[in-house]
Design brief:
Radius of gyration: 35 Å
Protein name: Tol-pal system protein YbgF
CATH class of the largest domain: Mainly Alpha
Mean pLDDT: 74
Number of helices: 13
Structural class: mainly alpha
Pfam family, one: TPR_6
Distance between the termini: 40 Å
CATH topology of the largest domain: Serine Threonine Protein Phosphatase 5, Tetratricopeptide repeat
InterPro entries: CpoB, TPR-like_helical_dom_sf, TPR_rpt
GO biological process, one term: cell division
Region (Disordered): 1-35
Length: 323
């Protein structure tokens, strides 16, 4: 159903068969009618553009392989557990090594002081020395156990990484690394600082980590107006990799749900760029026209006018040639 007040334009051929053509519109009237038709079509074209940007099925796959992602998440969880256990074992090893040094020092000291110790009973010397040797052997056994466990854990971790690569390729491994970075990264409690951190990571080229942060921002402050800018930032990470379909979805979310966001005008501009890359010339131009109409005083609107003028300039010779 069309919104109230909107209608399809009349078709010029809707006249009864055999009707006389007397009083047919002149060239000027035709031109005026064409202009009115364009104006009447504009609201529907605007709606079509927003719908096109916002439909996940068109530009962003609704089902992104959820089963595969679940497996990757499980592998990521397993890897995190292995890494935690590996860290703990290494810490235990580090804590044990000084004890070994201490026992070795005790044995050395005991050997050097045999003359002094000779004054004591032989039985006491033997018991003390034997206990020190046993303690040292026990500590060495612990070290061997830790080293063996570390080797096993490192092997298991490498196997998990290989599974990730086999399942989704190099991209999955990079995502897992980004997830690990995100877990270790200290987050600001202030929402503006949080958003600034995500932007900084994206600017530094760490787009996977930036995406993690943008998505986390959207969940944490779901109803905040700044979510619109988070969608734009997320779209920019895709645009930087020429992933226009994914980028268009994010820009569409800004325009549909957060039209008052600071990034809304630029979302139209970026959408035009994406449509152009996808060889969708009409949609690319329409995005520029809607930008000028919706945000006429913005700097982006000025850019849009310049681009449209350039498009018209390029189209003019072609039309002239046809005449």
């Amino acid at each position: 159903m069309l919104p109230s007040g909107w209608s399809f334009p009349s078709r010029s051929g809707d006249r009864p068969a055999g009707q006389a053509l007397a009083g047919a519109p002149t060239g000027r009237e035709k031109s005026g009618r064409a202009g009115r038709l364009r104006l009447r079509w504009r609201p529907m074209r605007s709606l079509a553009l927003i719908s096109l940007l916002a439909l996940p099925g068109c530009f962003y796959p609704a089902d992104r392989g959820r089963a595969l992602e679940a497996k990757v998440d499980r592998l990521g969880t397993d890897s995190a557990q292995i890494q935690a256990e590996l860290k703990e074992t290494r810490e235990q090893l580090v804590a044990t090594l000084p004890k070994i040094d201490e026992k070795v020092a005790e044995v050395t000291k005991a050997l050097k002081g045999l003359d002094t110790a000779a004054r004591r009973k032989d039985a006491d010397i033997g018991v003390q020395f034997q206990k020190t040797v046993e303690d040292l052997a026990q500590l060495r056994g612990q070290v061997e156990t830790y080293l063996h466990k570390i080797t096993e854990l490192e092997t298991a971790l490498a196997a998990q990484d290989q599974k990730l690569v086999a399942m989704q390729g190099e991209a999955a491994l990079k995502e897992a690394e980004a997830k690990k970075k995100a877990e270790e990264l200290k987050r600001p409690t202030d929402k503006k600082e949080f958003l600034a951190l995500a932007k900084a990571k994206a600017k530094a080229g760490d787009v996977l980590l930036a995406r993690q942060l943008y998505n986390e921002f959207m969940k944490k402050w779901a109803k905040d107006p700044l979510v619109g800018d988070a969608h734009f930032g997320l779209g920019e990470t895709y645009f930087s990799e020429s992933k226009c379909r994914e980028a268009l979805f994010e820009y569409g979310k800004v325009l549909q749900d957060f039209p008052k966001a600071e990034s809304a005008p630029e979302s139209y501009l970026r959408s035009s760029d994406c449509f152009a890359q996808l060889k969708m010339k009409e949609e690319s131009r329409l995005a520029l026209e809607e930008l000028i109409k919706s945000y006429p005083k913005s700097a982006e609107a000025k850019t849009a006018k310049e681009r449209i003028a350039e498009l018209d300039k390029k189209a003019a010779p072609a039309k002239k040639g046809k005449k």
